Automatic annotation (TrEMBL):
It comes from Rhizobium aethiopicum. InterPro entries: NAD(P)-bd_dom_sf, SDR_fam. The chain crosses the membrane at residues 226-248. Keywords: Membrane, Transmembrane, Transmembrane helix. It holds the Pfam family adh_short_C2. CDD domains: SDR_c. This is NAD(P)-dependent dehydrogenase (Short-subunit alcohol dehydrogenase family). Belongs to the short-chain dehydrogenases/reductases (SDR) family.
Length: 255
C-alpha cells in the first residue's frame, strides 16, 4: 500500500503524462489532492486522461506540449499558473528512445532527436518551472533519468548520454536552488512495463531475456511504482533529499 499525502491546494505539472509513468504519476498526484496539469505531445490523449481524472473526482487539465520546443514549455507552465495560481510540484517525465545502434554508425538525426527531448526538454522544463517556483520560494521538481543515467549498455550511447545529462542538471540545479526552498531530484527507472518499453522490445525477444537475467526482483517494474517514488520525493517526507538520482529498478544497478 502506498503512503497517502495531503497535496490539497498544491499544483503539479507532469510531462509525458498521457500514458505510462507520466499518467501513473498524474493520477497519483490527483488522488492525493493536487490539481494536475497533464502535458503531452499527444494533447488529445492528455485531455481525455485529464477528463477521466475529473470524472473520478480529481482536478486536472490536459494540454499538448512538445518539450523539445521551449516556447511550448513556457506556455505550458504559464497555463498551469493561469489556471491554478501557482506551481508546487513537477515531474519532468517526457522522454523518447531511439533504435539501438553501434556508436560508430548512429545517425545524426537520432542523436539530435533524443537529445532535443530527453536533455533539452528537461532543461527547458526546469528553467520555466524554476522561474515560477523561485518567486514563490518553494517547490519540488523530479526529473526522469533512467538506469541508463547510471550505467552504460552497448548500442545506447546517445540515449544514455541524455540520461546522464539529466542527472548532471539535477545535481547542479539542486544545489543552486536548495537555499531558495526548492528541492530538485531525479528518478532512474529500470525496465518498466510501459508502452515505450513494449515498443522497444517488440521483436527483440533476446533483449527481453537478457534484461530479465539482470532483474534481481524477477519481473518488470510497474508505472505505479515509479509514481510512488516521484510522489515521495515531492512530499514533505523527503524534505532533506536534494540532488539525488534514485534508482527505481528492481535491483538492476545494485549488482
Amino acid at each position: 500500500m502506498n503512503p497517502v499525502y495531503d497535496f490539497k491546494g498544491q499544483v503539479a505539472l507532469v510531462t509525458g503524462a498521457a500514458k505510462g509513468m507520466g499518467l501513473a504519476a498524474a493520477r497519483a498526484f490527483a488522488e492525493n489532492g493536487a490539481s494536475v496539469v497533464l502535458a503531452d505531445l499527444d494533447g488529445d490523449l492528455a485531455d481525455r486522461e485529464a477528463r477521466r481524472i475529473v470524472i473520478e473526482g480529481g482536478i486536472a487539465i490536459g494540454m499538448a506540449c512538445d518539450v523539445a520546443d521551449e516556447t511550448q514549455v513556457a506556455a505550458t507552465v504559464d497555463r498551469a499558473v493561469d489556471e491554478y495560481g501557482r506551481l508546487d510540484m513537477a515531474f519532468n517525465n517526457a522522454g523518447i528512445q531511439v533504435p539501438p545502434s553501434d556508436a560508430a554508425d548512429e545517425p545524426l538525426d537520432s542523436f539530435e532527436r533524443v537529445t532535443a527531448v530527453n536533455q533539452r526538454g528537461v532543461w527547458a522544463c526546469m528553467k520555466h518551472e524554476l522561474r515560477v517556483m523561485r518567486g514563490q520560494g518553494s517547490g519540488a521538481i523530479v526529473n526522469c533519468s533512467s538506469l541508463g543515467g547510471l550505467v552504460g549498455l552497448p548500442g545506447r550511447a546517445a540515449y544514455h548520454g541524455t540520461k546522464h545529462a539529466v542527472i548532471g542538471m539535477t545535481r547542479s540545479a539542486g544545489v543552486e536552488y536548495a537555499p531558495r526552498g526548492i528541492r530538485i531530484n531525479a528518478v532512474c527507472p529500470g525496465v518498466i512495463d510501459t508502452p515505450m518499453v513494449q515498443e522497444m522490445l517488440d521483436g527483440q525477444s533476446d533483449a527481453m531475456d537478457e534484461i530479465m537475467k539482470q532483474q534481481p526482483i524477477g519481473r518488470l517494474g510497474r508505472a505505479e511504482e515509479v509514481a510512488a517514488a516521484v510522489l515521495w520525493l515531492c512530499s514533505p517526507a523527503a524534505c532533506f533529499i536534494i540532488g539525488v538520482a534514485l534508482p527505481v529498478d528492481g535491483g538492476f544497478t545494485a549488482h
